[in-house]
Amino acid sequence: xxxxxxxxxxxxxxxxxxxxxxxxxxxxxxxxxxxxxxxxxxxxxxxxxxxxxxxxxxxxxxxxxxxxxxxxxxxxxxxxxxxxxxxxxxxxxxxxxxxxxxxxxxxxxxxxxxxxxxxxxxxxxxxxxxxxxxxxxxxxxxxxxxxxxxxxxxxxxxxxxxxxxxxxxxxxxxxxxxxxxxxxxxxxxxxxxxxxxxxxxxxxxxxxxxxxxxxxxxxxxxxxxxxxxxxxxxxxxxxxxxxxxxxxxxxxxxxxxxxxxxxxxxxxxxxxxxxxxxxxxxxxxxxxxxxxxxxxxxxxxxxxxxxxxxxxxxxxxxxxxxxxxxxxxxxxxxxxxxxxxxxxxxxxxxxxxxxxxxxxxxxxxxxxxxxxxxxxxxxxxxxxxxxxxxxxxxxxxxxxxxxxxxxxxxxxxxxxxxxxxxxxxxxxxxxxxxxxxxxxxxxxxxxxxxxxxxxxxxxxxxxxxxxxxxxxxxxxxxxxxxxxxx
Length: 486
Ligand code: HEM
Hints:
Blueprint: H1 31-42, E1 45-50, E2 53-58, H2 61-69, H3 82-87, H4 101-114, H5 117-121, H6 124-140, H7 145-162, H8 172-187, H9 194-197, H10 212-240, H11 248-253, H12 260-294, H13 296-310, H14 325-337, E3 347-348, E4 353-355, E5 358-360, E6 365-368, H15 370-373, H16 404-407, H17 418-435, E7 436-439, E8 442-443, E9 446-447, E10 468-471, H18 474-481
Parallel strand pairs: 2-6
Antiparallel strand pairs: 1-2, 3-6, 4-5, 7-10, 8-9
This protein binds protoporphyrin IX containing FE.
Residues 94-95, 272-273, 276-277, 280-281, 284, 340-341, 344-345, 347, 407-410, 413-417, 420-421 line the site of protoporphyrin IX containing FE.
């Protein structure tokens, strides 16, 4: 037996127990706060070991860039998830896809269709139309804000991914997608399934006592496969009839004689727009409403800018974007204040590495503590304060770090939907503030102040809150309802 000696020490970290390592140290509630404490105690790179798996937590922008970006050939894999990835099948969607040829093919697809601001401009009209529908829904039923945000995010993505226009309620694809997405968070929750800890259980036959997870996996797999295939077939049928509107899928299929592998890649890339883009965008837009409820002065400034630039007679459009610097700063502050992915998406290391004199073994999971990077008091003055002005140059003072440097991830895995996300959040912000006043609700004469609480999860959402949403004026209602086609 050859016992391999570590070439260098592991990075520092909390000391584990024999056999189980740091299993008890692994935080389950707001892990980003525990990771921040580790950073303060042990430095920018922390190491723990949980049941034989090495986990590296990064707490600075500099180190994260040096590892995940500059050494991206080593640091771009994803962990294998026996339940959610293998058995249910999520490993074929881009956020979970292992590094390799198929990964590069999907990324090329994304790059071609939504890889730049100019490419995404093609979908501006879709964004505007769908956001106007959002305003209408909010006006009609303001107390169902969260549902409207979710429905609209799904509608925007399905229009762009498949040229599919969703129904106002009970849409089959939205229902299917919501089921698939709910299943994935259950299937990938750490520690929820024994098979994730003991992967050999995947080989146990489904009838075996205790193998109920296999039946569950089969059921979830069917939902997922239907969600991936049904919209794809919808586009193919439309293309055959010559009536397919432009979309991510039709754009990639147009005039191509596709191999089975290419067809598969288009189908799963298109679905990856939904899996990567719906829940994340929902979290950001919902937290915009939370911020506006809590910080009326910011809201007033934003509205004053819109009123001065756009005026009362029309809704803002993407054409106004460059003339609205305060709104731009507000969107940045939303992305910083509610960190949508507080602990990023984990990257996996494909080869042994030595970094800053520390040994990073092959297979390690690397977790960037994005939350701390966006709340580090050395980078952001009073980080807990919601203050868009930190992003505007003033009196010779440089703006603070652009949150997009870190909030969309790193290296070859950086969010490929960044321009689309940006467009969706921007247009929702500017159109909503043009026509609505958002404030605290008053119940029995008492003003209710929502708690600022972000729930745990890879994608973190603000805890559900109440707010009052009222039209700003009669003209505003006219604008929302202006066009019968919308
Ligand atoms: C507020 C909105 C969004 C945020 C904060 C966000 C953030 C992220 C982050 C942090 C990652 C992981 C990057 C890494 O591994 O280092 C990611 C990956 C991804 N995002 Fe986004 N995202 C958003 C919106 C979108 C949208 C609108 C789409 C698609 C239309 C999208 C599609 C994806 C996909 C497919 C991946 C996986 C990429 C890969 O693994 O190679 N995201 N996103």
